[in-house]
Amino acid sequence: MHEASPASGATDAPERIRRRPLLLSGLAAAALPASLSLPALATPAVATPARATGAAPGGETGVFGAETFTLANGLQAIVIPMRRAPVVAHMVWYRVGAADEAQGESGLAHFLEHLMFKGTPTVPSGQFSHRVAREGGRDNAFTAHDYTGYFQQVASDRLGLVMEMEADRMTNILLDERDIAPERLVVLEERLQIVENNPRARFRERLAATHYLNSPYGRPVIGWEDEIRAIARPALLAFYRRFYMPANAILIVQGDADTETVRRLAEATYGRIPGGVAPDRVRPQEPPPLGSKRLLLRDARVREPSLTRLHHAPSARAGQDVADALDLGAHVLGSGPTSVLWRALVDAGLAASVGAFYSGKTVDRTEFGVFATPRPGVAPERVEAALDEALARVVQDGVGEEQVAQSARQLTAGAAIARDSLMGGARAIGAALSVGLPLESVEAWPARIRAVTAERVTAALRSVLADEGATTGWLMPLAGAKA
């Protein structure tokens, strides 16, 4: 991933812009400069009328009050008005990520994300971020298993500039061999820093590879080192041409802009690009689970052991009701001092920390996980046994209505915080739309969460915790090492 800001030194030399790795495994009219005109593009497309879809069930106002329209070339656009300051977040999400790579080409989606900053015929290599920074803005990009995104935060009167540049690189990226070789070294260094030099990241990478037998979610987003080294320009170009097109993209603008302004600018920039045909996302699927798996990874840099267990779970695409119940179930199990696992392990003096998580915004079957870190001096076996016992009680006895109601209050309180963030809505909506969920899945989320019952949470937890295909991993110090 990438990030630049005015403080990065970009105003002096664009090649010195420092970028922050962002891997996930996830924002007023302006005159468009003639120097950024898009070459050889089609006639501007006509957009469909904007629709306000921010209503929740029962007439309740949606979280972000987003409006949407679609250009004739298939580009879906979302506008989230926010008038607190004269700034906008501009995001383009592509419905493609690391899980869409061919076997043996891990890291290709992320590598291409890096190379998207390396120039077009009208915006030379390194100049994209340089121009954003020169206008007082910042930009970045990110790759996950199911999507890739690019964003800028700029003054609202510069929205046209970033839309023109983003539309330009949607169709005109050069992928020069002179950029590919040095950028490959940057990606390899990024892998070294964020994975190889981080014992927990290495462990999580290997745990995913152990958990998933056939799903591409078992491959790291950044890629395996030998496959990163082997990625060649023809594969990058083919991937770009297959997935980077208006029909496979989502435009989101949040901030000081109205829908009509965004539509006019979108028609003048993205609307001039032929739409293409969005590819089907057909991927290898996991076979039915058969037996549990274990991973033990020791590392000299680790001082305290930690446990993570992954269960197979349905995504929100398979059923929003179950996904909502699992969101709440993870909170009931592992969020804070009142949670089930905290009381069973932390209050009992066995664990220093515990938690649970569910990743529902995915294209394919996903995971529900729990984790625990033993207190110093407590044997890992005791912690795992206590965890098993606590989860077995949940499966046997279920969860209570008050537990679920409290978790619902805490979870939905966060919606107000997201509403106040310049990119909170853009990120939440972009991630949902990119995996095939409707806009309403985000806008109506608080109302749905408040309607979930203890009975539904219990049923959802039983369905995943009883999964015999669970994978339990321990990250441990070297044998005989002192804590």
List keywords for this structure.
483 residues, alpha+beta, Cytochrome Bc1 Complex, Chain A, domain 1, 2 domains, eight-stranded mixed beta sheet, five-stranded mixed beta sheet, 16 helices, 13 strands, 38% helix, 17% strand, globular, disordered N terminus
The CATH homologous superfamily of the largest domain is termed Metalloenzyme, LuxS/M16 peptidase-like
Low-confidence stretches: 2-20, 26-49
Counting structural domains, the number is 2
The secondary structure category is alpha+beta
Major sheet, described briefly? Answer: 8 strands, mixed
Helix content: 25-40%
State the end-to-end CA separation: 34 Å
Shape: globular
* Number of beta-strand segments: 13
How much is the radius of gyration in Å? Answer: 23 Å
Strand order, sheet with most strands: 1-6-7-5-8-4-3-2
Strand content bin: 15-25%
Can you describe this structure in just a few lines?
The protein has 483 residues and is α+β, with helices and mostly antiparallel strands.
Task: Explain what the structure shows.
With 483 residues, the protein is an alpha+beta fold. The chain contains 16 helices and 13 strands. The chain has two domains: 271 residues, Cytochrome Bc1 Complex, Chain A, domain 1 (2-Layer Sandwich); 184 residues, 2-Layer Sandwich (Cytochrome Bc1 Complex, Chain A, domain 1). Helices cover 38% and strands 17% of the residues. The two termini are 34 Å apart.
